[in-house]
Design a protein that fits this description.
about 260 residues, alpha/beta, seven-stranded mixed sheet
Length: about 260
Amino acid sequence: MDMWKYYAITHKNHFLCNPMNKEKFEKLCGFLKLKRGAYVLDIACGKGEFLIRLAELYDISGIGVDISPFFVKNCLEKQQKRVPKSNIKFLEMDGAKYKPEASELFDVTMCIGASWIYNGYLGTIKALKKWTKQDGLILIGEPFWLKEPSEEYLKAERIKKETFHSHYENMKLGEEEGLTCLYTLVSNHDDWDHYETFQWWAVDDYVRSNPDDKDLAEIISRIKKWKKLYLCWGRDTQGWAIYVFRNGIMKKNNK
């Protein structure tokens, strides 16, 4: 089954394609205090809510990149409905293959929940840093370990412990790359529960409305697997945060 079809089904009713609630999201957008016309890049932009909201608040220009044709369609529909005159381009392509034009730098770069594109969190930091202006902002959404993951969970999830880090390590890795961590926005159990279980409901709606879909057996099998992974292990083992970095090291003012 097409992976992007599955994600479009499970995230059909999600406001954001990550475990962050609307109130926290709005707070973060307000904290950014971007200048009018700021240039923003969002890799794996999902349904485009971040770019669209920043366009509403700050009249930004920008580029959103996503590999899913379903999500890019959502982005374009949302743009036309809410900010039809905005200078935002949505590109349907693999984020790993996106390269800005020569010497092009952004005021803000983002990759929220898709660090696999750059082979992990550290690779994401390095990729975004080179495309961000000095003193610009870098936003990365990334899971972190709440506690030591069990071998059973790692095996079931088919990941290694090294795939993710602790909350502190996520901050530290950015600062070791010459960034300054300004803020972290952390999801709680309610945020996670909504994100995960709303997918279950979306699948149920889809199955009821599309009884002849040849992919139903696989869709149902996948969601059952994720239910178990989340409730047996993930809910108490893995956290999530959006990390806001300044591209530059904080220095003492020696006036």
